[in-house]
Amino acid sequence: MSYGIDLSEARKFARTPAYMIPVIRAEAACGPDGETLGATNRFLTRDGLPWIPIAGEMHYSRVSADRWDAELAKMAAAGIDVISTYVFWNHHEECEGEWDFSGNRNVRRFVDLCARHGLYVIVRLGPFCHGEVRNGGLPDWLYGKPYEVRSLDEGFLDVVRGLYSHIAEQLRGLYFKEGGPIIAAQVDNEYMASSAPWEMTAGVSREWVPSGHDGARYLQRLRDIALEEGIDPPMFTCTGWRSPVPDDMLPLWGGYAYRPWLFYDGFGAERPAEHPATDEYRYRSLQGPRTSADFDPPYNPDSRLYACCEMGGGMFNSYDYRFALPYRSVDAMTNIKLGSGCDFLGYYMFHGGTNPKGLAGFLNEGQVPKRSYDFQAPLGEFGQMRESFQRLRTLHEFVKAFGREFAGMPVSLQDGQDRIDPSDRATLRYAVRSDGERGFVFINNFQDHVRVPSRHGERIDVTTAAGECIRFDGIGLARDENCILPFNMDLDGVRLICANLQPITVLRPQGRPFRTFVFLKPDGMDKPTFRFEGIPDITVGKADFERFMVRGTVEIICVTRKLARRMTVLGGGLAFVDDDNTLLYMDDGEWTLETRRAENEIATYPQGLLDVPRSVEPVDVDVRLKRLHADRCEIILPDGMGRLLHSRRKVTDILLNIEYQGDIGWLFCGDDLISDNFCNGGTWQVGLRDYTDAIDAAGGRLTLVITPMRHDTRVNVASSMAARLEQPGARVANITDVYATPVYRMTVGKQKIL
């Protein structure tokens, strides 16, 4: 099928100069080394140049402090620039006047470690956060106070001042202007847009924390209090959806296609039987004077860049909606946002976590597991790498290599693209970002809650503002795949008219007179072809790795999606690990391999960039089960496992894998609930490293309890469409398998090789 788009309007917009907007505080936006931050109505700037940050959410108080260092290194390896984190009030002042910033709650140490890994930080201050935390992060003791929370009541503002004062004390000296990593702070969250139940009340009463009613004045007052107490970032942000937006704050947006709250009791007019397909996977214009009709923010959209803090990096399982997240939904969302004009990427969550326990009980929200907040994120609760991590890393390399070129580029849509019905399986979904002459075609073939077919024989004609017709033909795309195709791209003096391959990055190999451009072959592409000016078209084959020279001055490398998932960009070259569960990342100046295999191979291009990895002696963790009851068993771990994990010389973690059928799984060590899981048909994983002392004290024994389905019912959770459906059936509480997987860690090279 043929499609066409004209870029004459794009040139008019591109020639309209961007202008500075008042969301950056000049007095806080210059670092001691001279680095500066700025903001225009189209993009952020760093040292005066366009900058597209990539932010990932990780909650320090939900991750063992012992893991922070390595997990932040992994996030940096994924291309994350900015760590976004909530400061949950009730994690620090659960009892009025009693503050705790120790251990996993040591926000200062966490921010220091972010700086160590070259990561900026956005601190989400609250007072209300949500995040599926008890009361949305508000302490229980606020419920009985003689004032309304989330309001301009002076009594409430006084205790918020106390919160901000304690946060400021922890963060002193860590702001951008002082050489620290903190570049932004968010006040409250989803103000006047969402809330959370008061978990201390009777569940049937459904008493909720107020969502607020004081408009932008409330957010401005919180900002003023933060500044008065010493919280001094370059920028303050707020959430944009259905919320007020002060003129001097940057609104941040998001997008979730999997929405458990649709199935909460009492949510909305009618609880659906199945999750509807959403509009999150169609392109629209989200910046400039001609935005899509369904994007109606409370400000002139041409006066702000479109930025995100909560693109769905995953989703939690709630009791009434539990599903296996399609991991390809995550990078498809990134493609859609970039193609729609987003110039600030932000994921919620990027790293899952575990809810801490409080003095009076669990600190979770009642609809979600008491301990687990894995979120099916790119990095799981215990640092497990998911397919979404691997696919995002490729996209993030593209943003880092070419972001300056397309930052602020307007969006061009063929008429009707922003009105495509989510269930439409026939129409090609695409958008163009360009300056009228050069740019990128974004194509998406993923739709939530709809099984889309693979595509073949598609054609897109792009007519530049100068009247040149650039034809992309032979377009095909596998089901659930997405891609970004370039046109009129300058490859060091060689004009690439167009390509049916996606640029990934540009390498600068040492000792070579030319640069290397790396491209991805999108899965299902009919004709992966390069069209250069003045030479015949070059069509690459099906090999995982191919290379060729153009005019003797430009090297091209092409990799398949399968190989790209195992690829790490080293700066001057590429490294390819040999297993999907192996991650190569930089930690403390050394290239580090985290793997579930005792022996690994790494191929590099050019050859010899890394040391030959040493294999480690494999560790066999034999797990025995002792049946105590139909729905209860004892897990017996081998002697010395705690000592093995304490030493970390060979094994950095042991993942306990639990496969079961039932309603809820509960894992205890002694009388301590260390993990829980709402059954969704997948393998439940628990990292045992965090519990080594308790495991040793319990003699290496854990207790696994399965809550069965209620008598004569079963729960159908096989589809991401369905809520928790009860139908007649047998009582089910069955443990299928329990086994352990060691996670090894080894050093394979030094920073000096680059």
- Computed over alpha carbons, the radius of gyration is 26 Å
Which blocks of ≥5 consecutive residues have pLDDT under 50? none
From the spread of the alpha carbons, the general shape counts as globular
CATH fold-type name of the largest domain: TIM Barrel
Topology (elements, then pairings):
Elements: E1 2-6, H1 8-14, E2 37-39, E3 44-46, E4 49-51, E5 54-57, H2 68-77, E6 82-86, H3 89-92, H4 107-116, E7 120-124, H5 154-171, E8 182-186, H6 216-228, E9 235-239, E10 250-255, E11 308-312, H7 328-339, E12 345-348, E13 353-354, E14 372-373, H8 387-406, E15 411-412, E16 429-434, E17 439-444, E18 455-463, E19 469-477, E20 482-491, E21 494-499, E22 502-507, E23 516-521, E24 529-532, E25 538-539, E26 545-550, E27 554-560, H9 561-564, E28 567-569, E29 574-577, E30 583-587, E31 590-595, E32 602-605, E33 624-629, E34 632-636, H10 641-647, E35 651-661, E36 664-669, E37 672-678, E38 684-687, H11 692-697, E39 701-707, E40 714-716, E41 725-727, E42 734-750
Parallel strand pairs: 1-18, 5-6, 5-12, 6-7, 7-8, 8-9, 9-10, 10-11, 11-12, 23-27
Antiparallel strand pairs: 2-3, 3-4, 13-14, 15-16, 16-17, 17-20, 18-19, 20-21, 21-24, 22-23, 24-25, 26-27, 28-29, 29-32, 30-31, 31-42, 33-34, 34-39, 35-38, 35-42, 36-37, 36-39, 40-41
Helix pairs in contact: 7-8
Give a brief rundown of this model.
With 754 residues, the chain is an alpha+beta fold.
Please describe what this structure looks like.
- There is one protein chain.
- The protein has eleven helices and 42 strands.
- Helix 7 (328-339) packs parallel to helix 8 (387-406).
- Helix 6 links the parallel strand 8 and strand 9 (235-239).
- It is globular.
- 15% of the residues lie in helices and 30% in strands.
- It folds into three domains: 52-404, Alpha-Beta Barrel (TIM Barrel); 411-613, 3-layer Sandwich (beta-galactosidase, domain 2); 624-749, Jelly Rolls (Sandwich).
- With 754 residues, it is an alpha+beta fold.
- Strands 5-6-7-8-9-10-11-12 form an eight-stranded parallel beta barrel.
